[in-house]
Write a structure and sequence with these properties.
Blueprint lengths: L2 H20 L2 E6 L15 H15 L4 E8 L1 H10 L3 E6 L3 H6 E3 L5 E10 L9 H7 L3 E4 L3 H10 L4 E5 L3 H8 L7 E5 H10 L4 E3 L5 E10 L4 H17 L1 H6 L5
Parallel strand pairs: 1-2, 1-3, 6-7, 6-8
Antiparallel strand pairs: 3-10, 4-10, 5-8, 5-9, 5-10
């Protein structure tokens, strides 16, 4: 990287920070497709489209907002939402520990289902965890995730290969000879997209092993009138059908 490129990147970074600091509401993006696509105005992703609609309604209420045009790791996202007033993130799971850290907008955004992906020529659809246990099939999962922990409880740690830190590696093991992995466990939002763009012959098994809602989380330090605005906007999007219309383009 040249010195000029470094200067330009730093300039862009600090301009973004200044713009976010000046906004009442700041929306964060995760490196998770198709939830987010950077620099893609025609297809910003599921959460990118939701942000766009929310921002339009915030503008009508004279509440300024900005989207951070950088992918952030989930730990940094959660830290910022917890500590910085007006910080918002789309697509968070919910548990008791997180309830203490964040404000959850009451209207759920969408639901994701945990499914498995297998080779395109493998036509067997396991209907339950018990069927996977009986077949003694190893199932891949992302290391350190709640999905991996849930899977271990259901089928036992010995059948779960949670050594993966990325999505490309397990899909390659499934899709290429000698097919050293039969299944990979993830959510349907991500797997439907990955199978569509993958170079490997893969298919998503229809069985839904678990379905959980995903939420919009906001810093609890956010002023009350801004929280109320977000609550009202999401409720209105649900009632009008706009929320379901956006979600339906990504989850099917």
């Amino acid at each position: 990287m040249t010195s000029l490129m470094r200067v330009l990147l730093l300039f862009t970074f600090f301009v973004t920070l200044e713009r976010l600091a000046a906004a009442d509401i700041s929306f964060l993006q995760q490196n998770s497709q198709p939830k987010y696509f950077l620099n893609s105005p025609d297809s910003p992703g599921l959460c990118g489209e939701l942000y766009r609609s929310i921002i339009r309604e915030l503008d009508k209420r004279a509440i300024s907002s900005a989207v951070d045009n950088h992918y952030l790791p989930i730990k940094r996202i959660l830290s910022q939402v917890e500590t910085i007033p007006g910080t918002v993130f789309c697509g968070a799971g919910r548990n008791a520990e997180r309830e203490k850290r964040f404000h959850y907008i009451r209207t759920p955004l969408y639901q994701v289902s945990n499914v498995v992906v297998t080779h395109g020529d493998d036509l067997h659809d396991p209907k339950s965890f018990e069927e996977i246990i009986a077949a003694r099939d190893s199932v891949g999962a992302l290391y350190g995730t709640s999905s991996a922990r849930f899977l271990q409880k259901k089928i036992g740690a010995t059948l779960v290969n949670d050594s993966f830190n990325d999505l490309e590696s397990p899909l390659k093991l499934i899709g290429t000879s000698p097919h050293r992995l039969r299944y990979f466990y993830y959510h349907d939002l991500g797997l439907n997209y990955l199978v569509k763009v993958s170079p490997y012959p893969l298919r998503v098994v229809k069985t839904k092993f678990r379905t959980v809602p995903q939420w919009l989380i906001v810093s609890s330090k956010t002023p009350e009138f801004q929280l109320i605005a977000l609550e009202e906007i999401l409720a209105s999007m649900e009632q009008s059908g706009e929320l379901a219309q956006i979600v339906g383009r990504y989850i099917y």
